[in-house]
Amino acid sequence: MSRTTRTAAALTILATALTPAAALAKHGADDGPAHDRGDDKGGLRDDRTSDATTSKGKTRKARVRVTGSCDGDSTAKLKAKPDDGRLEVEFEVDENRVGSAWAVTITRNDDTVVRRTATTRAPSGSFSVERKIANPAGTDRISARAVSPSGEVCTASLSI
Fold this sequence. Notes:
By secondary structure, this protein is mostly beta strands.
C-alpha cells in the first residue's frame, strides 16, 4: 500500500470518527413525510450506563431509557434520570393517531405516582407524560402502563 493510499485511508477514518451522530427528534418528528408509521424508533434504545463522574468529582447516575412493549401497533419508551435530588420520569407512547385519550399510570416501587389521561397529539399521534418524583435512597423500580380507548396496552419498566 502506497504512502498516499495509507494517508487517504487514515484521513477518511479520522473524518468518520469526528463526524457528529445524527440528532434524534422527539415524538417521531425526525421522520420524513414518506415515513408511513410514526416514530422509526431512532431514539429507542436501552441507554443503561454505569455511574459517571462529573467534572467536579461528584458521582451521578446516568439516565436510563428503555423500549416498552405494546400489544398493538403502537410503540412506547420510558426514561428516567436523577435531577436535583428527584427523579425525572418520562413515558411516551406513539400510536400514530391524533386525538386518542389513553389512561396512564406510572409507579415507583409499586406505589402509584402518576394517574392521568393523556391525549395523542399532532404531528405524530403520540403523547408524553413527564413528572419529577421523589428519589429515595437505593434502587427504584419505575413502571408505566397506558391503555387506549380500543383496549391496546403499552407497558415499560426500568430500574434506576
